[in-house]
Design a protein that fits this description.
Layout lengths: L9 H26 L1 H43 L22
Helix pairs in contact: 1-2
């Protein structure tokens, strides 16, 4: 079975996650050796905080892009004489149709 979103088999995704975890662990360990102690931890926490902030900005940019694309499609449909529906918020409803998200 393959994942529709990534095209990778579950086993391959698990391997990718394991490799990413090992690389992350090696980076953390080398960071501790280089900087050491509380200062190193503070630097790592700061880097993770920045990563979270960047991730949030990327999510906001992706949502803005999705809404703009929806507006363009709606305008194009109007030009063709079709009924245009405005872009909607992503569904948060729980649904079960045979696969995991």
């Amino acid at each position: 079975m393959t994942s529709r979103s990534s095209g990778l088999t579950p086993g391959r995704r698990l391997l990718d996650y394991a490799v990413a975890g090992l690389v992350g662990q090696a980076l953390v360990a080398s960071g501790r050796r280089l900087v050491g102690g509380r200062r190193g931890r503070a630097m790592l926490v700061g880097a993770v905080a920045q990563g979270i902030a960047v991730g949030r900005r990327l999510e906001a940019a992706a949502e803005e892009t999705r809404l703009r694309a929806g507006d363009l499609v709606a305008e194009a449909r109007e030009r063709l004489g079709e009924e245009a529906t405005p872009p909607t918020e992503p569904s948060t409803a729980v649904h079960d149709h045979g696969h995991a998200h």
